[in-house]
Every structure is written in C-alpha cells, then in structure tokens.
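Aim 2, interim progress. The first record below pairs a target sequence with its structure tokens.
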Amino acid sequence: MENENFDTSEVCGILNEIMEYELSGVVRYTHSSLMVTGPHRLPIVDFLKEQASESLQHAQQAGELLTGLDGHPSQKIANIVETNNHSIKDILEESLEHEMHALNLYKKLLTKVEGESVYLEEYTRDLIGQEEQHQLELRKMLKDFS
C-alpha cells in the first residue's frame, strides 16, 4: 500500500458502503426469519439467522479494515426496502437480490485493491467467494418454486 496510486480514501468509502450494506443485511435477514411460516419454516429460519450472523461478521470485518486504513466507520445502515411480501419464495428471491448487490460491492472493492494490496485483495476475493456461494444456495432453494 506504499503505492501513491492507491487511494485509501476511495477504498475506505467502499468499505463503509459494504459495512452499511452488511448491517442492513442483519436487519433484513432477522426480519425475514421472523416472517417465515409453513411446513419448511424451521430450516429456512435457521438459514436466515445464519445469514444475519454472517452479515454482522462481514460488517465488522469491513470496519476493522476501514479503521486499519485510518478511516472512520459509518453508523448508518443501507436502505432496506420493505415489500411486505413474506412468502418463502419472496423472501428467498429478496435474499438472492440482496446477495447479488453485496457481490457487486465486493467486486467494486476488488477493482480498487487488485495489484495494490495482497491482504486486501485476498480478503475481497474470499468475500466474493462467500457471496457467490450464498447465491448458489439461494438459487437451489428457489428451484422448487419455479
């Protein structure tokens, strides 16, 4: 990160955006887990609670990197659209949309850190892999609904 072309303020801005979005995921997944009904409720509730916990962990990781780069973590969360559609299919589709947006944020970060910091690049690639894995899981869960 000794490179003068490495824009830490821009990287910190993206990390703040990630933090705010991951924190919105905590709220989204917690809300969704409370709204699930029907015979498949329990495994889906467990999955959504797991996603909420992971979103909090991801927000904390982004915040640690942010402060490590002398940035200041935001206390905001990204806007959460409440559709009031709470069928399992709707919840899973909204979750998939959420994961796709998160993936795009990490890809945005990768374009800024690639070739500039091995640590930040590896962190970002790991998170991209996790977000892609979540998308695969959600797509598999949605198969019975198509």
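The second target in this work package is listed in the same format:
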Amino acid sequence: MPLTAKVIEQTQNWIRDVVIACNFCPFAANVVKKKTIFYRVENSISMQTCLKALAEEVKRLDNDESIETTLLILTNATKNFDDYLDLFATAEEILKQEGYEGIYQLASFHPLYCFAGAAVDDAANYTNRSPYPMLHILRESSIDAALLNYKNPEAIPQRNIDFARQKGLLYMQMLRDACF
C-alpha cells in the first residue's frame, strides 16, 4: 500500500475507533457517514511547505462546498510538539490575515499532544492525540449548524477529559496505537 493511502487509512481508523467510538466529537460520525471529509497528506519537513498546503486546502474548501472538513496530515514536519504548536499558531494567524476568521476554524491534533498544565502521561491528552500531526480545517457554518441541535456543547471538552481519565492511560494508548 502506498504511504499516502496507509497514512489516510490509519487516520480513518483513529477517527472511527477513537474519535467516534469515544464520542470525543459528537459531530464526527455524521461527517464520516456523509463522506464529506477530505484527507491531504503532506510529507514535507518544511514548515513553509506545510503552510502552503494549508492555504491550498482552504482554497479547496472555498471552491468545493461538498467538503465539510479537511484533515491536513503532516507526517514529517512537526514531530516535536512545541514545533507543532508554533506551526499551529502561525496557521491560525495566516487564516486571520487572509480574512478567514469566522469562515474556517482550526482544530489541533498531534501524537504528543499535551494540554497546558497537564502531565505528559495524563490520559486526557489522548482526546487530541492522533496518529500523526494534523491541522483540522472546519467550516464555521457547519459547526454552527451542528451546535443548533446539541445541548451544552461547552461541556464536551470536560466530558472528554473525564472519559479518558476514567478509561486510563493504558486503555487510551491502546486505542490510538491500534490504529496503526
């Protein structure tokens, strides 16, 4: 299997077996069912190339209303979590500068994700620990529409943290690692 196809398959496994199965995002199942996720794998080690890929994916979303959300999977550029956070902050700033604030939103996923103030081995980090570093580009209009029919969306992050901690570190590691 070519590398790109394998990376996408592992990412899809993670979405199905972790994000949806643990209900970390109550809106993900519908998007997967409708097949409106676009997956792009970027293998470059260059941050600039990754940011260029982000710009290309935003343009793709601009031009194709059938895509609800894009996962830009960065296999090589940001293996270090601090480097990823720098890239993520730059990506958010670029979206703002390009006039996309309120149109698109970025979500953050990384294999070494660690919430500010959390211990590295806190099971809660697995709510955002993906197989590969990713920039998840979401349409704000889709988020708004999904939230219309969901009570207490502000409780989702804490519910996810509580779930992961209840299941424990080994369980959460096993779930994510099984995606490979």
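The chain is about 50% helix and 15% strand. This observation will shape the mutagenesis plan for the next reporting period.
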